[in-house]
What we know:
Elements: E1 3-7, H1 13-22, E2 26-30, H2 34-41, H3 52-61, E3 65-68, E4 76-79, H4 94-103, E5 112-115, H5 123-134, E6 144-147, H6 157-163, E7 166-170, H7 173-184, E8 191-195, H8 196-227, H9 231-238, H10 261-268, H11 274-298, E9 305-309, H12 324-333, E10 339-343, H13 359-363, E11 368-371, H14 383-389, E12 394-397, E13 409-412
Parallel strand pairs: 1-2, 1-4, 2-3, 4-5, 5-6, 7-8, 9-10, 9-11, 11-12, 12-13
Antiparallel strand pairs: 6-7
Helix pairs in contact: 1-3, 4-5, 8-10, 8-11, 11-12
Bound molecules: nicotinamide-adenine-dinucleotide.
GO molecular function, one term: NAD binding
Domain UDP-glucose/GDP-mannose dehydrogenase C-terminal: 307-404
Protein name: UDP-N-acetyl-D-mannosaminuronic acid dehydrogenase
Amino acid sequence: MKKICVVGLGYIGLPTSAIFAQAGFEVVGVDVNQKIVDSLNNGKIHIEEPGLPEVVERVVKAGKLRASQTPEPADVYIVAVPTPIHPDQTANVDYVRDAVQTITPFIQKGNVLIVESTIPPRTMDDLVAPIIKESGLDPYKDVAIAHCPERVLPGQILRELIENTRIVGGITPEAAKQAADVYRAVVKGDVMETEAVTAEMSKLMENTYRDVNIALANELVKISAKLGVDAHSVIALANRHPRVNIHLPGPGVGGHCLAVDPYFIVEKAQEESPLIQTARNINNSMPHYVETQVERLTSELKNPKIALFGLTYKGNIDDVRESPALDIAESLLKHPKLNVVAHDPHVREEQVSFPLHSFEDAIKDAHLIVVLADHNEFKNLDGAVLKQHMKTPVIFDTKNCVNEIEGVTIYRLGNLSHLKAIQE
Ligand SMILES: NC(=O)c1ccc[n+]([C@@H]2O[C@H](COP(=O)([O-])OP(=O)(O)OC[C@H]3O[C@@H](n4cnc5c(N)ncnc54)[C@H](O)[C@@H]3O)[C@@H](O)[C@H]2O)c1
């Protein structure tokens, strides 16, 4: 059985390591963060992902997965390090460059090198291949170099890692084949071979497609508020057309995929991508739009207390990266006229720069709950508890996830034309 060295033990690298270890491979996971390495070697994980703690504990105990701060000789190298954006919205590929450079002392003729990190088009050919060349190997002959983008849904990563179709783009057809065979050992979905640049671009277009369609839904929210239409009803009815799928509006687009990946295309084709850029701008405008509605709702209260529910970029996860909910919280916490508290059962204090409150503390004497993430905990709120502890039982649900509650006023992004300032 082959030995695999996975560089980067985050939301992608850690479950990937666990899946290969579970399938019988010897896996060494590498991370620059000593804490992550130590916890993994103790069979523990530092991220929230259903089912993953059990698998990791099992494979670490069985000696199939261990962690280290430095790479070591292996047959297959998989790079899963972050690719954030710089403040000027260009891709930061420094982590990928560093990770590949740390591998070069160990990589040998006949090995496979796969980058799973999301990368701008041509990164495999223009950045990764030259690093391997500098190390003295021929990147087009000696090593099978490929990009295999990840498209898992956080919260369902273990299942999707195995069931999703994988795209494997090689810098040569032979590289694509060898890298694809690595995945065929564990993946039940189709494993499609293509060129590296096509794989890079297809990953970016998947997320751009979703970002553009969410922008369309967010634009509909603004139009509907102006015209006195309920956007959620419009979406529900329009989607009964067999070939229409309007996406869900929300407080903005977050995470390090949808909110980031479109910029990787824009960077390489600025003039050719006006639609993608406009979609980004619309989605980026949503946090401010939500803040404005909060101001409208509380405009007639003397000392309004607002409880923000949910800080992650989507429901039932603990990830706050690029989260519009976090932007809204940070902005409203600075608001001179509002007393704002935040509550999120999935987020730990050290992930944010402000205090977190329990459900009970958050709702006590609150005039308004603003739901910013569709965590399951928020879907069926207890009306009696809200009415007993809140000053005015009003909810502004930006995710359209809270079920109707008798005696509690719920405003949703779709029905803002009915919005009335809260009266004490
Ligand atoms: N999380 C997702 O749902 C998801 C989905 C699709 C694609 N991706 C892409 O996958 C890549 C990884 O994302 P993630 O969410 O796992 O990131 P992450 O931040 O959760 O984890 C990355 C890990 O890499 C480590 N690291 C950084 N530089 C390193 C180096 N030189 N050597 C060793 N370790 C290093 C960090 O310490 C961190 O633990 C990104 O390009 C992301 O865009 C993520």
